């Protein structure tokens, strides 16, 4: 474990000692996500499409939706967006429960290790300026930063930006999300070019956010883009994949 990651974890342990947390799942005092609740997290297990990471129904290792290719090389999520994990993401995102970023980054680290992904840097899906101002922090950065420390690679602050503010996507269809996000992201060519990037977000709903981040990075010359989120919303769930 790199020293900087150890230090980061100690920092949050210190915060927990000063301000003991409550479990995001069951409310138990003293832990951010207790052992019992962790066991309820429903991992997204193989076989999945080797590109988009959704469960496969038929033969082969690529789903029909990905045959034509995607702007990213692979997209994965640690688990399904339901139960205690959904509540954890909501608490991280809307209730300023920032220590959960450190906790949930452990799930991301596990996925990276399973896939033996080798990347040159980690970036967070950026928020628009207005939303960042309202919320005060970017929940994706709270996941991406400790993950970069754990992997011992640079955290690409500012490599990806969001110059255009977009509508909330909660009630949009997959196609509408794609259009809503087209051109929303921009990558810094001087830093992005020639490298493999791991793009981190909290939830994947349709994958439109990741596709557009990957398009921006590739347009800036990035070599490979992997997407990784804590949770994947099921087909029948309406979720906030909007920020
Ligand atoms: Zn619990
Ligand atoms: Zn697929």
Could you describe the 3D structure shown?
With 243 residues, this protein is α/β, with parallel strands linked by helices. It has one domain (3-15, 70-232): 3-Layer(aba) Sandwich (Rossmann fold). 38% of the residues lie in helices and 14% in strands. The protein has 9 helices and 6 strands; from the N terminus they run H-H-E-H-H-E-H-H-E-H-E-H-E-H-E. It has helices at 3-18, 35-38, 83-94, 99-115, 129-135, 139-151, 174-181, 189-192, 208-219, and strands spanning 74-80, 121-124, 160-161, 186-187, 196-204, 224-232. A 4-stranded parallel sheet has the order 1-6-5-2, with helices on both faces. Helix 9 links the parallel strand 5 (196-204) and strand 6 (224-232). It binds zinc ion (2 copies).
Q: If helices are DSSP runs of H or I spanning 4 or more residues, what is the number of helices?
A: 9
What is the distance, rounded to the nearest whole angstrom, between the alpha carbons of the first and last residues? 31 Å
What does the average pLDDT come to? 93
- Counting copies of identical and different chains, the oligomeric state is single chain
Strand order of the largest sheet: 1-6-5-2
Describe the structure in brief.
The chain has 243 residues and is α/β, with parallel strands linked by helices. It has one domain (3-15, 70-232): Rossmann fold (3-Layer(aba) Sandwich).
């Amino acid at each position: 474990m790199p020293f900087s990651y150890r230090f980061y974890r100690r920092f949050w342990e210190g915060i927990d000692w000063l301000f003991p947390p409550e479990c995001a799942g069951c409310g138990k005092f003293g832990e951010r996500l207790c052992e019992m609740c962790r066991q309820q997290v429903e991992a997204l297990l193989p076989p999945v499409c080797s590109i988009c990471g959704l469960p496969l129904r038929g033969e082969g290792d690529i789903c029909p939706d990905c045959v034509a290719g995607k702007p990213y090389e692979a997209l994965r999520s640690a688990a399904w967006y339901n139960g205690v994990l959904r509540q954890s993401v909501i608490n991280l995102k809307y209730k300023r429960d920032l220590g959960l970023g450190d906790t949930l980054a452990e799930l991301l680290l596990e996925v990276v290790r399973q896939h033996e992904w080798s990347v040159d840097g980690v970036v967070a899906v950026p928020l628009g300026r207005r939303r960042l101002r309202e919320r005060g922090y970017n929940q994706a950065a709270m996941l991406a930063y400790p993950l970069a420390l754990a992997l011992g690679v640079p955290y690409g602050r500012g490599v990806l930006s969001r110059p255009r503010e977009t509508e909330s996507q909660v009630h949009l269809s997959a196609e509408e999300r794609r259009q809503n996000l087209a051109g929303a992201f921009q990558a810094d060519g001087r830093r992005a070019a020639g490298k493999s990037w791991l793009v981190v977000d909290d939830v994947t709903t349709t994958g439109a956010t990741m596709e557009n981040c990957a398009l921006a990075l590739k347009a800036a010359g990035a070599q490979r883009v992997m997407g990784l989120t804590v949770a994947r919303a099921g087909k029948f769930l309406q979720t906030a994949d909007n920020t």
